[in-house]
Amino acid sequence: MVLMSMSPIEIEHLYKRYDARDIVTDLSLQIPRGSCYGLLGPNGAGKTTTLRMLLGISNPDSGSIFLCGEPIPKRARRARAQVGVVPQFDNLDPDFTVRENLLVFGSYFDIPARIVAQRIPVLLEFVHLEHKAHAKVGELSGGMRRRLSLARALINDPDVLVMDEPTTGLDPQARHLIWERLRSLTSDGKTILITTHFMEEAERLCDRLCIIEKGVKIIEGSPRNLIDREIGYDVVEIYGNDLVSLRQELEPFAKRIDLSGETLFCYVESPDKIEEQLRGRHDIRYLRRPANLEDVFLRLTGREMTD
C-alpha cells in the first residue's frame, strides 16, 4: 500500500561503489510533493548513478530509497508506473510518427488504447507539437524531439517526473518553452527531479537543490538562500591582461577576488569603488552584476576543469 503522506522521493544514507571507487557516499534527500528539486554537480559527481538507483536500474550498496511510497529496488516496477522519465539522450523510435511514439509508449503502462488516444492531443498541444502529430521523428528538430520526450514522459499522468539534463542542446526559445511547461507541472502538483549543468535553469526552476561532488553532498537549500549564504555580494568580472598585478591593486576594495584564466571575479559590497579604480583603463573590460547560482557552484566545486 502506498503511503501518500510520504514525500514522493526519499533517499537515506545512500552508498554506491564501482571498481573500489566511491561514486555516491551517504547521500540523503527528501523531496516534497509538488516541488522542483535540482541535483547539481560536475561531470562524474554521481548524479546519473543516483538517478539509476532511484529508478531501480542499479542497486545501491547500502541505504534506503522510497519512490512514490514504494521501496526501491524491491518494488521499482510498481513505483515506475507513477513516474515519467526524460533521459539525457533521446531514445525515441525513429520509425514511428510522433503520435505512434506516444501510442506505443502508453501501451507499456497497460493504459487502454482509447485513454492514450484521448491524452495524445492534449499532450501534443502542451508541448506545441500538435501540427507534427503525423511527422516521423527523423523530420523533427532537436528541440521538437526534446519536447516529444517530455510529452512521452507524461503519457501515464505520472506523480513524479525525473529529467536528466532536460534542455541540453536546445536553443533559447525551446529552453524557455520547456521551463514554462515544467513550472506549470509543479503548479499542478507534480514533483520534478532534474539534473542540469545550466545554473540559470536550476535558479529559475528549482525550489530547492543539492550540489554534490565526488558523490558527496556538499550543500543543499533554495537557490536564493545559497546565493546569499555562500556569496552575499555583488560581482565585478574583469577581462584583460596582467590580471595578477591588477588583482593586487583591487584587493583592498573587495571582500574576495578569484582569478580564473583571463578573468578576475571580484566580490564586493560596493561595485562603485572597483569601477573607480578601473575608470580610464583601455586594456580591460568589465561587467558588474548580482551574484548568481553559478558563483555558488564554482566556489564550491572549483573553477578549473578536473578529470
On the 0-100 scale, what is the average pLDDT?
91
- Helix-strand string: EEEHEEHEHHHEHEHEEHEHEEHEH
CA radius of gyration: 22 Å
Total DSSP E strands? 14
Provide the structure class: alpha/beta
Gap between N and C termini, in Å? 44 Å
The CATH superfamily label of the largest domain reads P-loop containing nucleotide triphosphate hydrolases
What CATH calls the topology of the largest domain is Rossmann fold
Q: What characterizes the major β-sheet?
A: 6 strands, mixed
What is the domain total for the residues? 2
**How many DSSP helices?**
11
Helix content: 25-40%
Q: Low-confidence stretches at least 5 residues in length (pLDDT < 50)?
A: 1-5
Lateral arrangement of strands in the main beta sheet = 6-7-8-3-9-10
What percent of residues are in strands?
A: 25-35%
CATH architecture of the largest domain: 3-Layer(aba) Sandwich
What is the CATH C level class of the largest domain, in words? Alpha Beta
Q: What does the overall shape look like?
A: globular
